[in-house]
Prior knowledge:
Helices cover about 40% and strands about 25% of the residues. The chain contains three helices and five strands, in the order αβββαββα. The termini are far apart.
Amino acid sequence: MSEKAKLLLQELLVEVGLAPQDINIDGHCAFMVNDDYAVNIELRVQEKRLFFSSLVSAVSGKGKTALLAQAMELNLALYKELGMSLGLESYSNSLVLSQSISVDELSIFELQNHLACFLEQSEKCRCLFEQNKSQPEVHTIPNPSMCV
């Protein structure tokens, strides 16, 4: 494992209240945000990248098509503006927000900023999708700038 990447991940874990031993042998760990949802962090050693991911919405019910259409439009804005993306995790039937970050030239301060931005976007996406689930199904897609 890249020593710099390992140290950055350990420092980041301390910032979110975890201990370095919370990283499993594969370089993966997770933590809860406000006892509401989990954020996964995975160190991809060969690629020298950290990967953040979090479930942002279940995909079920009669509004499924509208939700997926909304997610696809939002996905483009997230990728263009923040380098994040939404995907469908088939085994949990959920939308997942993810981001992959190179740790090669990264300081702990920059990594903390990436995580803070990721957490903020996770919250925004969760709120946006939850808000739209509670409204009657309409076949228009909201402005993605509401989330990004």
